[in-house]
Design a protein that fits this description.
Layout (H helix, E strand, L loop, with lengths): L18 E2 L6 H25 L8 E3 L2 E3 L2 H12 L6 H6 L3 H45 L1 E2 L7 H9 L42 H6 L12 H16 L6 H13 L4 H20 L3 H5 L3 H7 L12 H6 L13 H8 L1 H4 L1 H7 L8 H8 L6 E5 L22 E6 L21 E7 L1 H15 L2 H11 L3 H7 L4 H5 L2 H26 L8 E7 L1 H15 L6 E7 L7 H9 L5 E5 L4 H6 L21 E5 L14 H8 L6 H5 L14
Parallel strand pairs: 1-4, 6-7, 6-8, 8-9, 9-10, 10-11
Antiparallel strand pairs: 2-3, 5-7
Helix pairs in contact: 1-4, 1-8, 4-23, 7-8, 17-21, 21-22, 22-23
Length: 661
């Protein structure tokens, strides 16, 4: 099974037990919540399927080879010769005789070569998602609300939850509530077809996550907050906080007409509460557990009065009137299932496993790569991250962000480009191959400050970087100084691929982050490391680990099959940031297989779900990415940024129409 969380703890018949929420919510609210969660997860499933269903974009034939770097040239030619249209690339292609001759043949070859790999990847991605979806829906179906015998008038008040009438109808998305002779699985809040709120409390958020018409939005806000809290605890009961879980809760927040700030605050509060409870567990008690006790904890039979973590959770505010929007202690521990019944799943979520300390993991990583360390960006602990119990609970989160730099000019540069990252997630900087990156940074600075580079840049700009790469026509003065950067760049590319493989192992095999999702951000050679990491996860069919990814100025192929493969393991956003004026990146990649394109120079086409941002011309070209990370992340709509840091960064010129898709 690709991920331990699916099917562990809450999915088998032996692990299931009814969760009684009588008195907390009504049967109608329970049924409509199940209906809504089912609808959201079905839409998530369809979104995954759609990624692989887009028709392939054909490359351009150049010297009997498929050349993806021809596409930007045709785009430019099409805009000059034709008015803008939705088919700009096809219109532009018709201006090229070679494109006309090769189009049908290439399209057929691409379709045939694309089908087997992507068809298998699609099948396995959807299979994984269905398993996770069934686990979530089963936990929701296990919620029971008992309705006592009552008069029709009393039943109407009871079903509404807070004094509004109900209309009985078919329940969509779940079985009826269990328990009680009059539980009536058909109870619903509906007084007509499900509708959208007339005005959403957070319009930008609703645009990103369009709400599904439902009946719950008519409830008072406090009731909707309670339902979101119930869903949150239900998700956590699967003993992980995967990227799919985060995406589900974001969609649910939008559908319940709640502001995203409310959800994010709840996410931080619960993470701190769970981390506090985990820190209260002594490593000795975990090490003293016998193997049969560990196996038994995976078969949850429901929390009783002696649930081991109930006191700690109550102390942290979970299951109290103030901290759970009126949810009782018994109801909260019932929703949490294995997380409330055993210490080990809770500690594993934050990688607090004394049998597998992070320090030993780092020793394993150092065998393959000379320098590999995670440095926290925020909080009291700023040294290397080697002990998961060292950061205080107030600094712990349910999600991680790992940022990577692509070169170094000074030692402190490791942190400097990423000071813009906020504190909604645990932010880390990956320190990797410091010596190689310092050598590369020094070489790049030497070249871009030289007169030869200034003259060469002017010559290249007269005919575009794409023409220079395709024709291998570089100014002679640039070739004379190329030896300064070619070797450090080649060494860096090799080290980046090793770092990417090591990062993939750290996330998937060693679980240094615990059972939580990870987002990745990097520029330059670091983008190559992220690309290698994602490709490795895709090869292993490890879905649900990665939340969002931003790849900036990447020396990686732009071919859509590659990016569809990357997107298969990214549950959230996958963004390619590029510049057609990055002459240095083009020159450094002149010996690579450029027929498959260069993502750092061009838009990714034919890969549904991949976003693009053209940043235009940066002040320092490729080297300018390090000082523009905050502005770039703000431009793409990254949620978690330090606005003061971003405000002080130098602005860059975004291409017309923002270059975004």
């Amino acid at each position: 099974m690709p991920r331990g969380g699916v099917g562990r703890g809450g999915n088998s018949a032996a692990a299931r037990r009814t969760i009684d929420l009588t008195g907390c919510i009504s049967a109608a609210e329970r049924n409509d919540l199940a209906t809504l969660i089912n609808a959201i997860t079905e839409r998530m499933h369809n979104d995954i399927s759609t990624i692989f269903d887009s028709p392939p974009v054909s490359p351009v034939m150049a010297d009997d080879c498929h050349h993806w770097l021809k596409l930007p040239l045709l785009h430019r030619r099409g805009k000059e010769n034709n008015p803008p249209s939705s088919n700009t690339y096809q219109d532009a292609g018709r201006t090229s005789n070679s494109y006309n001759r090769a189009h049908q043949t290439i399209e057929k070859e691409e379709k045939e070569s694309m089908t087997p790999h992507l068809r298998e990847l699609k099948k396995e991605a959807l299979t994984f998602f269905r398993k996770w979806q069934s686990s979530i829906l089963q936990r929701v179906r296990d919620i029971s609300v008992t309705v006592q015998d009552q008069s029709p008038a009393q039943g109407a008040l009871r079903g509404r939850g807070r004094g509004a009438p109900i209309v009985r109808g078919a329940v969509r998305g779940g079985r009826g509530a269990r328990g009680g002779r009059a539980s009536r699985g058909a109870l619903t809040l509906a007084t007509g077809p499900p509708r959208l709120p007339s005005k959403h409390t957070d319009v930008p958020f609703a645009n990103r996550f369009p709400p599904i018409p439902n009946t719950l939005w008519t409830l008072p806000q406090e009731r909707r907050k309670l339902l979101l809290h119930i869903a949150f605890l239900t998700v956590i009961s699967l003993t992980e906080y995967s990227a799919n879980a985060h995406l589900l809760l974001l969609n649910l927040t939008s559908c319940l007409n709640l502001p995203v700030k409310m959800f994010l605050a709840e996410e931080v509060r619960l993470a701190q509460a769970f981390a506090s409870a985990a820190l209260d567990v002594s490593p000795e008690s975990l090490l003293s557990q016998k193997p049969e006790e560990i196996r038994g904890s995976r078969k949850w039979k429901g929390p009783g009065p002696g649930a081991s973590l109930a006191p700690a959770l109550i102390q942290a505010g979970i299951g109290t009137a103030a901290g759970s929007f009126g949810l009782t202690t018994c109801a909260a521990t019932g929703l949490l299932g294995p997380m409330a019944a055993s210490e080990r799943p809770l500690c594993n979520m934050f990688s607090m496993n004394p049998a597998r300390p992070i320090s030993k993991m780092m020793d394993i990583f150092s065998r393959d790569i000379q320098d590999f360390a995670l440095l926290p960006m925020h909080g009291k602990v700023r040294s290397e991250y080697i002990d998961a119990r060292e950061p205080p609970a107030i600094d712990r989160r349910f999600r991680l962000v790992i940022a990577l730099g692509g070169w170094l000019t000074e030692d402190e540069d490791v942190h400097d480009p990423w000071k813009c990252l906020g504190q909604q997630a645990e932010a880390f900087v990956l320190q990797w191959e410091t010596t190689a990156l310092l050598n590369l940074g020094g070489s790049l600075e030497t070249v871009i400050k030289s007169k030869a580079w200034r003259d060469a840049k002017e010559a290249i700009s007269t005919k575009t970087i794409f023409t220079s790469i395709i024709e291998s026509s570089w100014p002679s003065q640039l070739l004379k100084i190329s030896k300064i950067i070619d070797n450090p760049w080649s060494v860096g590319m090799v080290r980046a691929e090793k770092a990417g493989q090591t990062l993939a192992d750290a996330i998937s095999r060693h679980k240094f982050q615990g059972e939580r999702s990870v987002s990745l951000v990097g520029y330059g050679l670091a983008a190559r490391a992220i690309y290698t990491c994602l490709m490795s996860l895709a090869e292993r069919r490890l879905f649900g680990l990665i939340d969002s990814v931003v790849i900036i100025g990447a020396p990686v192929p732009s071919e859509p099959r590659v990016w569809l493969t990357l997107k298969s393991v990214v549950s959230g956003r996958l963004v390619n940031v590029y510049s057609e004026h990055d002459y240095l990146l083009g020159f450094l990649n002149r010996f690579s297989n450029t027929h498959f394109g260069i993502a750092g120079l061009q838009e990714i086409q034919g890969a549904d779900g991949v976003e693009n941002l053209d940043v235009g011309e940066l002040a320092y070209g490729h080297m300018g990415y390090a000082s523009a990370t905050g502005r770039i992340l703000k431009e793409i709509g990254w949620d978690d940024l330090d606005s003061d840091i971003v405000r002080n960064e130098k602005p860059f010129r975004v291409a017309p129409a923002a270059g975004r898709r």
